[in-house]
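Take a look at the protein record below and flag anything odd:
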Amino acid sequence: MQPSEMYRICTGALRDYVTGAGFTDVVIGLSGGIDSSVVAVMAADALGADHVHGVLLPGPYSSEHSIFDAEGLARNLHIETRTISICEPFEAFERVLGAACGGELSGLAAENTQARCRMTCLMALSNAHDWMMLNTGNKSESMTGYSTLYGDTAGAFAPMGGIYKTDVYAVARWRNDRALELGEIAPIPENVLVKPPSAELSADQSDEESLGVDYATLDRILVEHIERGRDVDEIAGMGFDRAQVAEVVSRAASYAFKRAMEPPYPTADFYA
């Protein structure tokens, strides 16, 4: 499926889900990364910029460029934004949970607590203003469990939940190109498209290092396994490293419990 059609389907499904649930407005956490940027653009196209509320949620490991990119996106889209630092609530959790977690809140527990602080802020705004909270995840993250339960898995609807990360980039580039063709400003800052994706939950973190595989390879393996039903031997026979294929397939199976608790997403067969 072409990126333009993916975008049309995801945006239409977003509009139908939000309005069908009786909402007029949505709230989105803006990280300055590719996923939240694309969802924000989809929401603005689907509902109108006046109905999209972006929230910057900087934490202890947020980079200056991420904040700059999120602000640039919001300016391009003409959407309202506010900034709520999660540093203070996260520090409170560190103090309260440190002893119970073996002396300090660290590692995965600390990373996921940051994600849950962000979710709590977004849901508070959702409840206070009657805004639907949108999920910004993609299928690569969902299939590999690269997410935080009750953190970035939260949200009422996941517009990009059915497409893989490499296609998120393809959709983003198509939407920018389309804007330029129409004589408009490309909504997604170029830096968002070229910088290495990172959850920014620890120092010098990158998604691909955490996953142990680059997204291009990961998505090709996932498409063959999930969409076309091929097993480890068949995929390895296509030229992929067998150990890497086995790890991806195993990971996809082991994180099925997370997917059971993720929000709905467009049901189109994007990879037929």
The chain has a mean pLDDT of 96. The CA atoms of residues 1 and 76 lie 27 Å apart. The two ends are 8 Å apart (CA to CA). The chain has 13 helices and four strands.
